[in-house]
Amino acid sequence: MKSTILVVEDDQQIQRLYGDALRKHQFAVAAATTVKEALAVLFRQKIDLIILDIMLPGGMNGFDLLEKVKNQSQFAKIPVIVLTNLDGEEKVARDIGVNDYVVKANTTVKEIIEKVNHCLSQAS
Amino acid sequence: MKKPAPIKKVTKRYIVHRLNRLTNIFAKASIGDFSKDVSIPKEEDEFTELYVGIQIMLEVIREQIAILNQEKKQLENERNQLRTLIDSLPVGVYIAAIPSGKPLLVNKRAKELLGRIVTTAGTKDYTPAYEVTQPDGRPYPAEEHPLAITIKYQKPVVKSDIIVKRPDKKTVALKVESAPVFDAKGQMTSAIAVFDDITKEREIDRIKTEFISLASHQLRTPLSTIKWYTEILLDEKEKLVPQQQRYVEDVYQSTQRMISLVNALLTASRLELGKFVLNPQPTNVITLAETVIKEMNLKIQAKNLQLTTKYGDRLTNITLDREALLIIFRNIVSNAVRYTPPRGKIAVSLAIGKSRRGVGEGQCLSIKVADTGYGIPRYQQEKVFSRLFRADNIRDKNQDGNGLGLFITKSLVDTMGGSLWFKSVENKGTTFFIYLPLAGLAKRHVKPS
After folding, report:
1. What residue in A sits closest to B220 (Cα-Cα)?
2. Among B107, B117, B150, B171, which one has the highest count of C-beta atoms within 10 angstroms of its own C-beta?
């Protein structure tokens, strides 16, 4: 069965790009642009991995979602990869329990897919 | 009949009588009054020459005194002019006694800038009423004050990171230049500090740096999109005609360069704002160096450069900030690659060794990168670590340096408590030496300002 990746990203172009690239590599994709939408998706369907941006609209940021996910037993095991352009926040994210922290500008689509596969293989 | 006086007695009386004419003159001279003339008797005898001689001497003395008085007046005049000048200078002037540092002269502007100066020359303990701190609020180490360095090492010092908290609670940022004063024999007699209020400049600089930081960060997102889409296009480049492939490759390369520049600007502004937080973790330094060399491999091969490495022992588990060391390696190695002509040599050596050049105590990670490149012209070597520096001799050879690499490297090495210097001979090559204290690498933490 296909793994489902929840992409939490407010930039429409990047959202579309993640979707295309992930689907091309046989993943199912669910999308959210705010923390609230992401939580709705999490409660509605089974998610295998979350790709998370930090700066999000709607009053809550990626760290808020990360904390909620890691503190709820039903979600705590879902691997989370932070993909952001903020590079001073890695320590904070690692402390909350993020599985990987990647600076968008410094990575490639190929690397993102590799990281997704790596995190999924470790989680299973 | 009276016996004539003996000849000896007569002579004596005569001499005493003649000398008495001078008594009054010498008495006056002894209290500094040279105004009385010698009255020279009409009849000439052996004393005439003495009288004339003394009269000439008196006249010479009077003349000298007149000259001295005039010079004194002139000096007083000049001193007043100087005093007025110093007091009306737009910069603070503080002349310090050595070795105590007590103020000998403080001009008006200095008093305005520093607030009250509580101390008088002659009192035993000298404590200024103002407090001196570093930009991040930590106290300024007493031995690092410009005047303290000038007094200790008898050399001029310039510092622009001095924050003064005045007794009235106001703070001013100062740029201080201090210099020793020597007498004719070369002995140091006092030290002078001249300082200027740079509070506004610092604020403008901070706003500028924050703007760059914000703008760079905002630039990263669209750059990531361009980079990823071109990457996807290049993944399926067989679908493109050769010319289109080349165009997409160029877009990819340019985007990558733009990202590197934005990253460099971000790192530089984070360092300037004191927001570069070191996050030390156990690191294999050899792997890190090899990663950087691998990144440069295409360029190394394209220029047919011969790169050799030499790694010492105990390099596989060192606690340090990986990102910082990666940036340092990248900058130093890429400079060597960039500024060495084809078929040149680059030697990278890493080792754990003893502390050098006063870098902490105990052991150091030493990094040495030597090249046979264009070198840095001697007259420009002082400016190498300033922002946007480009050497004159490579301007026409290479366009892709951004002038931030060494500025960032130096700031990072400083942040890590280390030391960085180089030797360079034009057209022979450059060698960079970096020493990072192992103890400091784990402990140091730069607090956000």
Report:
1. A105
2. B150
